[in-house]
Amino acid sequence: MTMALEVRNLVKRFGGLVATNDLSFDLAEGESLGLIGPNGAGKTTVFSQVMGELRQTSGSIALFGEEISSLSTAQRIARGVSRTYQVPRPFSDLDVRENIRVGLMPDSLRAMIFGAADRDREDELALSVGFTRQDLDRPASELSMGDLRKLEFARTLATGAKVLLLDEVFAGLTTGEIAMIAEVIQDLRHRGFTFLMVSHDLPAMEPLVDRAIAIERGTLLAQGAFADVLADEAVRASYLGVA
Amino acid sequence: MNLRPHHFILWGLFIAGMFLMPELVGKGTLRTMIFACYLAMFAISWDILSGRTGYISFGHPFLIGIGAYTTGILTRRYGFPVEASIPIAVLVTMAGGLIVLLPALRIKGSYFALVTLAVMELMYQLVPVVRPDLTGGTRGISRLPALTRGAENGYYLAVGLMLAVALMAWLLMRTRVGTALWAIGMNEESVRGSGLSTTRLKSFAFLVSAGVAGMAGAFYAHYLGTITPRAFFDINVLFQIIVAVLIGGAGTIVGPIIGAFFMVFLLEWLRPYLPGQERFFVYGLIALVIYMYQPRGIMAIVEGAWTRLRGARS
What we know:
The complex is a heterodimer.
Chain A: E1 3-14, E2 17-28, E3 32-36, H1 43-51, E4 58-63, E5 66-67, H2 73-78, E6 81-83, H3 96-104, H4 109-114, H5 119-128, H6 145-158, E7 163-167, H7 175-190, E8 194-198, H8 202-205, E9 211-216, E10 219-224, H9 226-231, H10 233-240
Parallel strand pairs in A: 3-8, 3-9, 6-7, 7-8
Antiparallel strand pairs in A: 1-2, 1-4, 4-5, 9-10
Chain B: H1 5-24, H2 27-53, H3 60-77, H4 82-100, H5 109-126, H6 132-135, H7 150-173, H8 176-186, H9 188-193, H10 198-224, H11 229-232, H12 235-248, H13 254-270, H14 278-293, H15 297-313
Main location (chain B): membrane
Protein name (chain B): Branched-chain amino acid ABC transporter permease
Pfam family, one (chain B): BPD_transp_2
């Protein structure tokens, strides 16, 4: 089995605070892994280190067998990993189509100047996450939280990444929007995409992941099948507040 | 923005009006318009970097000054023809800006603005004392070769240059680079998170901005015929450029042109009533009121009025 992501002995310290403590896990190609833990457990910090937005204190991160620790965020995205954020970060004055266009842009000035935007692909990506054709010209500043999540999802897909890190992808969504995004994720799973997913909405997450890992204060508590991880005593004590 | 037939009609009328202007107004007004054209070029140059990416540059007079001094030194001290000195001035401005200001693009917000301001002030203090045999010290360089004779020809040259700069900036901003620069101004982290090197994009915007500033500065120096440190590396030059962009409409091509003409003519109209420095107070007040009423400038006010007019008709 080819490994899409291999995290080994990852450590991140902020002064005296250990945000990631000797964390190791694997993510196979085409697999979907849930990363769970209470608030402040260090889940987003793991995402930031995988993306190169934060440099780890020690440890290694490999993507499709290649060590990526020394690469910039742009280089990591070019190699096939991308992420969404807890709080959506749209380009508020740009419309839906233009927001997605930024994700589709090649990281080359020459290509950006002399190449044309692929409007068909922009539309295809927007429609694939649930936008309608009437939404395409709407500025991001007019979108609801649910639409902003969809937009961020579409822009992440636009980068061409095959490994997607979804941070609180269901936060702020209505039940209908959650079902719609879940459907999109399932479709992408069938198409071979690999997911590392963080969500506090465990019932929504459960059908979307093959297995889960639980962390607390950056330390691995348990890993395995979703139900087994939730049933783990240490996880229940820390995450659910019951012994 | 998608182009519609009325855009072409408006631009056609504007260009025709500009080129007919010498037949309609006196030489004094033409000279005012020449200054407005150069200010518009400086403002477009500033807007390419700061209006799009949100990195507020206080160092543009430094770039304009490099262009002006380079062509001045080459033509007056070394006898270069202007055909060679102006392109060299553009390259020197880009290179000088690259060395001095580019590292500042790695810092953000007010820190970037402060570094650029410091560079401009440094230049203002250094030019008179370092190699005064070349720069002319505090007295500057005079009797630069003129590119045109008479106000009419100077006007046509200035208008032609301004339209060329506006066209170049418009074409560039219609590409995906324009969208990406605009996106940096809204959320730089998201642009980086979309797989783009924001340092490369900002550097490119800076180089284009510096090239335009250097070119406009060089032509302006030959139009004036004289260069002094006070005329170029002065905080008032900076304020005029920024105010022109803000009251015209940042992040647009037409906005800086409207802002430059509005500002220059406002100051001229105020001159008979307020011949002293107090007219700058009035113009500052008017700029403030416009900015408070519509932070996107006159351009947005006109667009809003046009939209309301169309809504009322239909």
